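Q: What does the assembled structure look like for these inputs?
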Amino acid sequence: MGVGHDEDFGAFVARAWPGLVRTAVLLTGDITRAEDLAQEALVRTHRRWRSVRRQDAPEAYVRVAMVNLQRSWWRRRAYREVLVDAVPDRAAPPGGFGTASDPDEVLAAALATLPPRMRATLVLRFYEDLSERQVADALGCAVGTVKSQTSRGLEQLRAALADAGHDGSGSTLGSATDDTARSTS
Amino acid sequence: MSPDLDDLDVERALRDHLARRAGSVDPSLAPVALVTRRARSRERRQVLVAAVAVAAVTLGGTAVAAPWLTGSTQGQVATDPGPDGRWAPDEVPTRGDLAEDDAYRTRAQEAVRERYAAVAAAAAAAGEPTGDLTAPVLGHVVFAGRLPAGAAVVATVKGSPEGVVTFWSPTGRVADLTMQRAFDRSYSDGTAVDQVAVSVGSPGGPGYVVVVPLRASTSSVEVSSGPVVGTDGSVRRSWSPLPLADGVAVGRLDAANPIQVPLVRLDGGRARVVAPAVTPNTAEQEAAFVREAARTWGIGTAPAEATVSGALGEILRVVPVGRMSVEPVFHGREQPSTAEVVAGLVRLDDGAVLQVAGAFDDRVGRTPTLTTLIAGRPVPARAAVRTPFTWVDDVSYSQSGTEDPTMRARARLALPGAARMEVRDVGTTPCGPGRSYGSADVDASGLGTVVVDIPSACLDPGPADVAPTDTYRRIVAVALDANGREIGRASIQPASMSEVVDTPDYAVAMSPQGSTGTGG
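A:
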């Protein structure tokens, strides 16, 4: 691997980085961790760049690496505390504390509690718009597993929304504004 | 759950949420230079170049001639290596005298299913989620052959994990073949592999190294059974040739060396870790050793057996119980996690001393988690009691929005009698703005904690030592007494920041701890 290899790889990193980080945020729920995850996946991709670059969508390779890494990190996260510069203030939900949160917050919180593979399944299906077959390939599992993970994941989200009072009868579901779509990082 | 919300509602809400959440992210500049530098650095480091003296010690006392491996490979599909002269692991012709015996392959597939069914059942019984567990499917048999003390099958596997799986039959009979271990595909560090190398055998019995080169041109195979730790904390290795016959090399692990962490190298090239499927102790021996150690720890209240097993788990996989004793040194609790921590010294029968430490987080409402903090770090025997136990956790690499791969970490130090700790750069010239990166009082038990930001320039670029991932050996944690005098020091070094493979923990046991003042 020489200079040309690195230049080619560098160009790929520059091009793919924003999209990878966005996906990683959805996988991790945290911008700092997402950047770490994308970076680590790219470091690992570098070793195999010669073969990865020949693929139609090298981003897909990195995405799979991110999903797998995230699952590994998740397994080991329980013991470690998370270092942050400062504890962020939490904005009051519409109507003040003690009322149902906005659906974005409910979904963000519910997603954070899902097992990593289930969360990855939902992100790949509904953000990356991958087919069930593509998700199965990315996660290294059967299509049936993707179906069941998707179904169970949606069920948990639905329960969380219902618990928070978003039962489909009101207008809040799916109508959150940009103001409420703030980063949880 | 509300009957009023259907799947489409939830799906639509989720799609909207994900799009908004992703759209709100403002990624930092692409860290092109950083990623490339880290990749290069890690690739150099993972060379696993072992140390200095290369005394010609024959593996196991004898270079094992392998008449039992001279079975023909005729009848297999003749697969040519790729354009680079190398086979992929799942394409190399099956090696070994049982290569044509389908019964072993069939039994191996059954054994995989049995093992994972048992694991899944145990997880379910314990109320743990099994969603992440995908039963692997046997891929390609790389090796199937008889050895002096049994028979082994080595195969690629697809699923979770994806990589290489080993099987062992202590009697050599196909019916007795059971799955030993599965190794993630990064077992050989993730780069394009030149060999499949594993150790196999009965726990506590003789272990064998099986090496299948993947380059057709490979002409020599050398193996080192394990690091030899000196009483001064130094580490060296010796290498011995293995005869290569019919595309496979096999040797017996050297029982004279107390530490069994074999490495392999082909054609005098880079050393690689041999995936360790065999351990020097049986499960019963390990359990008894841990139980006794926990019983005699004797510092304050008795530590949980689980915590002691966290400290000793790695060392028990590489050192026979009859060749080591444990000297408890520390027992306390980390903050803010409140995880119980034990640390101690393992003294080998050849005079070498290794540090071990483990933690057990048993907070109510969380999944109990066991962590090996120090797997077996060599220290000079004479200074062992004064050498602090150091580790880091919560490592994060980059500062968001910058190109600087600062390592932010929580540095820990444990040493009874210490009053204060300081994290310092002891390189010849400073690698950052100053020498001191932070200091803190040590609690009554002897445990100190300080959060530090270490610049990338402090990363140790040297390829000479065995180091698992990026290391900062020039950054040390110093233990100070009540008068501010130094008691001892040790480098802070993440044991395994990102790799979830067997390599790092074992490799830690090969990283000298005594020579930290060499940066610059």
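DSSP finds eight helices and no strands in chain A.
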